[in-house]
């Protein structure tokens, strides 16, 4: 009895000091003897013994082993004396051979389920997927370890031992999967810096016209200034449309060059302007670049970053944008003068020059390169630098992650058309998707028509006569905007999206009404500053970030980029409307100038209550069930350079032969069931099997064609 206990402890302690998730012994399902034990199993055949495991018979895989002579550190075997390979193998429920370790399989799931878009607040979705897969893989590891212990000691693991093993395995895998979020390479840092500067310029140029209205070519009319301010939003949708095409035709890096040089041209014209016409033209060009950036940056960073980092980068770019607004307010103190306003406008050109200096170090998106040529050597070289990989087989695994996820997220099974008109038409033709699209577009309209950019464009003009220092009031609003963005990030972790939007719209609605009351003289005029700040604060916790986040959560990954592009264009159109008409609203409505915004907010509240679905995400249990279903029929792509999909890994003869054998067995069992001669397990298995004629593997694959 003591020897059995020692053996149990030895088996449970295997793997200490090494990472079991790199190990072939922990692959899902190679040791299952009963189909009822296989998660997601839906077949009819029951094998009395598992199929021959390539790990136990390395001769089956000699052609593959010859290509990988070196072996990374950390791949020590959990079972002493067992043959180790650089890749791990498992047999799935339908008989396909899988070539991924649990860690690689988890990253594969993240790639397929997280859209290639960097979106503010998407970290929770990434964590939920990681937890769900870690739970699934830990259950498989625990079950397999229990079977190993039972086979050697004739005793099952106790409940406490099972829980301990499951917890340790789950935490270990979660740590490994989240490692991508902290290991950031130099090429990715440079890309983040350049893309972040683009979003900074979007925010900066949103607020830069707020303060110097009285010193830039003094004597201009209200119409001239309002056109110069709002034409920024006219260029925005045109830039968004152009970006949707150019990011596919010119590549992400080429599109980034167009964006940077457009910012530079607009910044130079605005800095050297001779009259308001030049200012207006420059604002249109900068608006074009800003709309271009709003589409390009989330796609570019989303395709460079690993899945566990995309939400973080989306949050970072949002902070760059609100920081740009705040910096434009701060710089207005020394430079919003008749002699210094050109320095205020020159920031755009200076930032663009910095981006140009960094451009030689900017890398192309490997996803875009692989979409054009799956055998691209440049893509593999970039992936090696981007992920810090050392071995060729690691690079090929990462390539397969990109290719498989791109295929799954393509609306017409062609990853080159992921962001094309085909995707938008597919969304319109699907009744359910069409309803979700309407919801996302209505929220984009509400985001702009609620009047937030009336504050960012004209707060200095609005505060004149209300407080002693309008510029100070504008700067306070910009600072609160940054702080509220951080608070919104914390709230989104644990709060439902509909709840946040209702609180946001409700708070803005009350703030608008109280602002009207203040302007009518019922409260101190200084109180109006407080309600403007509360208006902005409530915006940032809901109507600011949620309309963008909800797109990533409401749609399947393959629709996200298209829905983002459509939302961005409508957002810019509504932005233009508010920027153009608010000065006239203020002059004609006076104290009631915020009342139309209150009406929009009231309709927004009604719409959210009646129509908007909750999108915070599926529960970890639902995600886990979905992962079980998907991994029981795993589809991996060939690395042979073709565009054809192959069930089971790399499509070698062993895989195809095994699948054909399982299909034949399944068909034979179904025929036996119809005849009533099928053995359901109550009789001894008949050993008199009809032997198939001897055929080589090429003949079995082709079915004899060509002979």
UniProtKB/TrEMBL annotation:
Region (Disordered): 1-29
Known catalytic reactions: D-xylose(out) = D-xylose(in); D-galactose(in) = D-galactose(out); D-glucose(out) = D-glucose(in); D-fructose(out) = D-fructose(in)
Biased composition, class Basic and acidic residues, residue ranges: 1-12
Topology of this chain in the membrane: Multi-pass membrane protein
GO molecular function, one term: hexose transmembrane transporter activity
UniProt biased composition (Polar residues): 15-27
Listed GO CC annotations: membrane
InterPro entries: GLUT, MFS_dom, MFS_sugar_transport-like, MFS_trans_sf, Sugar/inositol_transpt, Sugar_transporter_CS
Keywords: Membrane, Sugar transport, Transmembrane, Transmembrane helix, Transport
UniProt KW Transit peptide keyword: no
Compartments reported by the entry: Membrane
Origin: domain of life: Eukaryota
Major facilitator superfamily (MFS) profile domain residues: 184-616
Pfam family, one: Sugar_tr
NCBIfam families: SP
Subunit structure: Homodimer.
This protein's name: Hexose transporter 1
Organism: Skeletonema marinoi
